Amino acid sequence: MALSTGDILPEFVAVQDNGRPYEPTPGRWRVLFFFPKTVTTHCQLQARQYQARLAGFEDLNVDVVGINGDPRQDQLHFRSTCKLGYPLVNDGDQEISRAFDLLDNPWPGEAVGRPKRETFLVDPRGVIRRHWTGVDPAQDAQVVLEAVQDIQQGETELLLA
């Protein structure tokens, strides 16, 4: 079943491209952006856009995490090429993509499916606050950053009212 805004994020166990387990930082928001393939220009553009705005996300207490099913060696090359300072989670077994209902059909010439390009904004309690489908890789990071700012500003205003 597809996840949507208001759902609790499913728990998942994953390994980062550096070989260490991925563990969310307690008390922080998370952006989980799924992308299909490390060697495509669209995926590199999306990853670089997140890197360019990483300080803005960090200022808002938000961790950025990219999720992809390519082999670890490909993810390491992707990290180096895009000069990324945030975690890439390996979903080679496709368990995370399945849990999020994002597994797409195999690409031509490939035997396994790839995750759809979708993005989730998750609050510190694990609630999905936004879910973007049909993501534009050139605009995704900016759209998500603006959504975080709007949500957090709205919550602050409610606390002060």
UniProtKB/TrEMBL annotation:
Keyword annotations from UniProtKB, A to Z: Antioxidant, Disulfide bond, Oxidoreductase, Peroxidase, Redox-active center
Catalysed conversion reaction: a hydroperoxide + [thioredoxin]-dithiol = an alcohol + [thioredoxin]-disulfide + H2O
EC number: 1.11.1.24
Stored InterPro entries: AhpC/TSA, Peroxiredoxin_AhpC-typ, Peroxiredoxin_BCP/PrxQ, Thioredoxin-like_sf, Thioredoxin_domain
Domain Thioredoxin, residue spans: 3-153
Top EC group: oxidoreductase
CDD domains to which the protein is assigned, alphabetical: PRX_BCP
Subunit structure: Monomer.
Family listed: Belongs to the peroxiredoxin family. BCP/PrxQ subfamily.
Function: Thiol-specific peroxidase that catalyzes the reduction of hydrogen peroxide and organic hydroperoxides to water and alcohols, respectively. Plays a role in cell protection against oxidative stress by detoxifying peroxides and as sensor of hydrogen peroxide-mediated signaling events.
Name of the protein: thioredoxin-dependent peroxiredoxin
Species this protein is from: Deinococcus radiotolerans
Taxonomic path: Bacteria, Thermotogati, Deinococcota, Deinococci, Deinococcales
